[in-house]
Specification:
Blueprint (H helix, E strand, L loop, with lengths): L8 E3 L6 H6 L4 E3 L1 H14 L1 H12 L5 E8 L15 H5 L2 E7 L5 E2 L11 E8 H10 L1
Parallel strand pairs: 1-2
Antiparallel strand pairs: 3-6, 4-5, 4-6
Helix pairs in contact: 2-3
Length: 137
Amino acid sequence: MLNNKIRIISRMVDQSIGPKLRKAGADGVVSPNFIGGLRMASEMFRPTVVDFLDSMLRSSQGNIRINQININKNSRMIGKKISELGLTEKFSLIVLGSKHRGSDIIFNPSLSSVLIEDSAIIVMGDAENIAKAKLSV
């Protein structure tokens, strides 16, 4: 509470503890057992997708990455549409999702969605182009 710039992530074993940890100030709560279960199910039903994502996120060969572009309170893009960022045209990025603080992720958001403070756009593309796009907002 003394420093709102610190992000606190907590580990939990018992799922019922999650709300308590968040109430105590955790920004994120991670359950290794739950994540492991999800991973096992994904391996069973979508093995090629899991392999692709693992390779993309950990590979030192390719430059394709998934990352977020934050729209903070000083951004000149607040009040403008996602399309006005020029993510596809200028930077060859694919917009995968968006998230506003305190809300759920929107998958494949409309390019006419208006950007608000404390939101993030989730993109996929060349790491260098993502870095350039971040500088433009």
